[in-house]
């Protein structure tokens, strides 16, 4: 049997066992169900020499060595209970995680909540993520409630973090207490921006569908300086109609304002080439359009977001790219723009 296959099977079984023993939660108060404890390397050496002292003491009938070995073994046992009780006071949660782009480091706000016991957890808390050996330390004695844990976001998507491993060897380092916690708070990872030349396209049918929502009640970035009245043409937004003039003369006119209207249109996913590269180029163009204060929408095979230019609209567009399916089969089921539901984010 292949060693790599066997390792993967054991890892899968271990993860399933942990899911049953320590299920997902928003916050944890550590207890017997979630804590594991074993001696450290120093603890095993300490126990070995304690037993060795006892053997020498009985062999040479040295009562002093026997008494010393009893004291060391008693200290070893007391330390085990002290380590467990200290770690069992830990009460942790995770705050809101800010979205990041792929290839960057996210700051995970680990909140050490007030302990439900009379005494807080003390010592150094070591934190890492599932199947990684990169630990970050937190000094619990000086911590003021929240510590930012670094997590490298490699791939785009929206989902929970890997299991977080917390461990502590307080007070003397003879025993190590640890746990593997699965928090339910999601992490949003946007595609890594790659410079591209995806233009703002005027998709006529989508513009018609969204005129009454995103560009209907109030013009986006409409200049304030009134210029003149011009003849109303079919397709012009109703908010620009001069209703008072219509009531007086019966002529359908619309108001024209001076100034340059902002750039408007839709960004759409390229239907050829690498999908991930196309999503990364879209992420870059969304940032560019937002910085230019352009009125842009997003057209994907899975959803359509109506044009806007707000910060919430930018986050919604990037989140749509993050949760876009990895499978390329979705491109084969693309519907006509008139059949898509258009979302609008103010």
Describe this structure in words.
The structure is a single chain. This protein is an alpha+beta fold and 346 residues long. Strands 2-11-10-6-7 form a 5-stranded antiparallel β-sheet. The protein is elongated and about 120 Å long. It starts with a helix and ends with a strand.
Give a short synopsis of this structure.
By secondary structure, this protein is an alpha+beta fold. It contains seven helices and 18 strands. It has helices at 3-21, 41-59, 63-87, 204-210, 243-249, 275-291, 311-322, and strands at 27-29, 36-39, 91-94, 100-101, 104-112, 124-129, 136-139, 146-153, 157-160, 164-168, 175-181, 186-190, 226-231, 253-257, 264-268, 295-299, 304-308, 342-343.
Total DSSP E strands: 18
Summarize the amount of helix as a percent range. 25-40%
Number of helices: 7
What composes the largest sheet?
A: 5 strands, antiparallel
Strand content: 25-35%
Computed CA radius of gyration, to the nearest angstrom? 31 Å
Low-confidence stretches: 204-224, 332-341
Distance between the termini: 57 Å
Strand-helix topology:
Elements: H1 3-21, E1 27-29, E2 36-39, H2 41-59, H3 63-87, E3 91-94, E4 100-101, E5 104-112, E6 124-129, E7 136-139, E8 146-153, E9 157-160, E10 164-168, E11 175-181, E12 186-190, H4 204-210, E13 226-231, H5 243-249, E14 253-257, E15 264-268, H6 275-291, E16 295-299, E17 304-308, H7 311-322, E18 342-343
Parallel strand pairs: 4-12, 15-16, 17-18
Antiparallel strand pairs: 1-3, 2-11, 3-5, 5-8, 6-7, 6-10, 9-12, 10-11, 13-14, 16-17
Helix pairs in contact: 2-3, 6-7
